[in-house]
Amino acid sequence: MDEVAGAVADRVRREILLMLRDGPLTAGQIADRFAISRPAVSRHLRVLREAGLVSDAADGRHRVYALVTAPIEELMGWLAELTRPSAWQHRFDALETEVYRTRRERRTAAGPDRSEEKTA
Amino acid sequence: MDEVAGAVADRVRREILLMLRDGPLTAGQIADRFAISRPAVSRHLRVLREAGLVSDAADGRHRVYALVTAPIEELMGWLAELTRPSAWQHRFDALETEVYRTRRERRTAAGPDRSEEKTA
DNA sequence: CGGAAGCGTAACACGTCGGTTACGCGTCAG
DNA sequence: CTGACGCGTAACCGACGTGTTACGCTTCCG
């Protein structure tokens, strides 16, 4: 998943994925759409391949790339969990608890310091 | 969105977002959870802030960070579009078309190797 | 065959990223 | 007021990513 997020985090690679959404394309067709050199595009394709976001198939002297959506959905699943609150419907009560916890920790480690009662 | 994807593409930052899912935390509390130095965490928080993924609020000498889910949903929206087929329900028939077109282009050999005219 | 087309890799330059230590500035406590 | 605490920033450095050009391998066509 690290690789998937990293792959999507690049503008060129996102553009490639968008192109591939409309159907498979050869490496040359993809490269033609960018101002950068073909080797650069080739390496972008390599990143996408290693992230599992595209599949490649040799066809004569062409190499055809196709979009693979499975890793995308996996990433979407992770993101969806973020938007789902876990054990925190009590508004900001948890903040108070956390601050208190840290204070206790620090006290045991550093010494006398009963300070920030301010909480929130 | 570039920034959002880039922010999520880092392991430490993803962990921070997960921590924040359970409620706001101070910078110190976040930093305590990692083996890296606090300045390093501070910069991760800066990246998250500039991506709009967290909100920060000064509270005394503490700084409280909270998760902001809006950009996440935006990224999810972009990813969802990838999984949606656009004008291509004919399985891999398009592949054949693309390869054929490319071959023809080369055969004409007039020079211009523009390919992307068929999708558009 | 032999040469051109298609594509990937190798080697290299360079900006960016993520880490560290040193420091500054505001805030709370005594 | 003074000193400790919390946190961010500055300066620096090694690693990685992205771009380039040069090259090699495979495939097609005349």
Automatic annotation (TrEMBL), chains A, B:
Does Transcription regulation appear among the keywords? yes
Species source reads Asanoa hainanensis
Pfam families documented for this protein: HTH_5 (PF01022)
Q: Where is the HTH arsR-type domain?
A: 1-87
Q: Which UniProt keywords apply?
A: DNA-binding, Transcription, Transcription regulation
**Molecular-function annotations in GO:** DNA binding; DNA-binding transcription factor activity
Source organism's superkingdom? Bacteria
Keyword Transcription appears in the UniProt entry: yes
Name used for this protein in its record: DNA-binding transcriptional regulator, ArsR family
The major lineage groups are: Bacteria, Bacillati, Actinomycetota, Actinomycetes, Micromonosporales
InterPro entries according to UniProt: ArsR-like_HTH, HTH_ArsR_DNA-bd_dom, HTH_CRP, HTH_MetalResp_TranReg, WH-like_DNA-bd_sf, WH_DNA-bd_sf
